[in-house]
TrEMBL record:
Region ranges (Disordered): 1-25
Organism: Halorientalis persicus
Protein name: Uncharacterized protein
Length: 209
């Protein structure tokens, strides 16, 4: 077995993992560090909780959600998570009555609808309204494993060509005149999903000439 201090020496030239530890540290920092080490060293009765990110997600999810809402200056979620309202500015949507199974399958890979009610690979999605009650931002939390290597259903693609869904998402956003952001610090199942955010280009460009 290799001495762990040697391991560290070997890695001196490796890419840095981020900020250095604060010097001097303070009590709360040391307590958190110790708690994290203790957690990583223990075996929970339920093995699902072996993943420390699951524990952090349970503790931090709500905080992270509220921080997102503040950062994007949002008021509340719309009743239905329909992205068509973001594209057209419509006051409401009747998604459920309008779309049959085939349309929804096509929608999954970002095939054109007119205009679409959902982005490709939609999962855990929310349409957020601003203070005036207008659609502002559409967010969805996707598991990379469900997006990166996808084999569509026969209905969506008769050849069932494997595809990279991130490409579908960016192409789709451009087709419908939306900006797209990928936030790694998702607040849904933090540490496991990516928060994909769509918004109209003018939203953050109001001060540009
Ligand atoms: Zn709709």
């Amino acid at each position: 077995m290799t001495d762990s201090s040697d391991d560290h020496d070997d890695r001196a030239d490796w890419p840095t993992p981020g900020p250095n530890e604060p010097v001097p540290a303070w009590d709360e920092y040391d307590q958190l560090k110790e708690a994290i080490h203790d957690y990583l060293d223990h075996e929970p009765d339920n093995p699902q909780w072996n993943d420390i990110w699951r524990a952090l997600a349970a503790m931090m999810g709500e905080y992270q959600r509220d921080a997102f809402v503040d950062a994007f200056d949002l008021a509340e979620p719309a009743e239905t998570p329909c992205v068509r309202r973001l594209i057209t500015g419509e006051g409401s949507c009747t998604c459920q009555q309008k779309r049959d199974w085939k349309q929804r399958e096509l929608e999954t890979i970002g095939a054109r609808d007119d205009p679409p009610h959902a982005p490709p690979y939609r999962d855990h999605s929310t349409l957020w309204l601003d203070e005036s009650g207008d659609p502002a931002v559409y967010g969805m939390h996707v598991y990379p494993g469900n997006v990166e290597m996808v084999t569509p259903s026969k209905t969506a693609d008769p050849d069932q060509q494997q595809r990279n869904g991130w490409m579908d998402i960016t192409r789709w956003a451009r087709e419908w005149g939306l900006e797209v952001g990928f936030l790694p610090l998702s607040w849904y199942n933090l540490g496991s999903t990516v928060h994909v955010v769509f918004y109209p280009p003018e939203r953050f460009r109001s001060n540009l000439e």
